[in-house]
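Appendix B. Raw example, untouched.
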Amino acid sequence: MKLPPRKSGKVIVRLARLGLALLLAFLVISDLGCAAFNLSLSTVRGSLQSHPNPVHDYGEALSRFQKIQDTEKLELNPVCLSILLTHGKRTKRAVVFFHGLTNCPEQFRELGSIFYELGYNVLIPRLPRHGLADRRVENLTPLKAEELRDCADTGVDIACGLGETVYVAGLSAGGTMAAWVAQNRSEVARVLLIAPAMGLTFRETLRFQQLMALLLPRIPDIRTARDYAIPPTHTYTGFSSRSLGQVLRLSKATFAGAFLQAPKVQDVALVTSQSDASVSDSVTWRLVGIWRKKGLVRFASVDFPEMMEIGHDMIDPAQKNQQTGIVYPVLVKLLNAP
């Protein structure tokens, strides 16, 4: 089912609220609400645990990346292949960038090149089921949180052979992956979360968001069109509600881990924008609060004021009214800090 762009977002929220209202009513009536919620946290954490397999040298990192390239078929948009920028050897620092939902590695190419010029080896992996040349949003319907988990694990594994110190950054769904990395991968020294999709609207409670993670993957897929007339030629042309639900599953797994133990990465930075209505900053700050209570050592944040009109995708130069001249220096300063 496909809806016109202006109504689609509201329809998704209304359907989600209706479904969740019915689910919550059932749970309350049956007096199993709390137990069911706790069980769901335990289940999602167990199914989305990390499976680290870090490489130990530069040659092995190149070999692992070659395996990724071997899986990237002709059906892909040529600019959407995974990107590896190296100096021909293991460098002092390496960075992994995870792009956003519906986009592809091209989103981070320009920012990645800046870090390459700073001496980093740079890895920008293609997220699963992204970058296909037909750009159909239906490609995202089968996406699973387990695939996003595996992509995050593999990115960190390869980066361990690319640099002595590993940094990770991600935007939106890629930011959710970066948050999962912060919770689970001790090999990483610093994580930068850029408008992470820990929750999808700014009004809802954390429990509502996590119940959406149960609902959205199970209801019929609702596909929406983008609001702007001429999207970048490397992005998909809309969103899939099921894929959004899978992103929320990964977010939920990150919270489930955070409730139990401190994040494995003790240096985290966060960038948000008050003009961004696509994701929930309050849910992200709830996660940061949990991390702080668990002893997070270093944290920095930047919140662009509404008057600057910096949108959710503050990375891709191809987006309309982009302000990378303002955003990129902030990201470089945060990620490249001593």
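End of appendix B.
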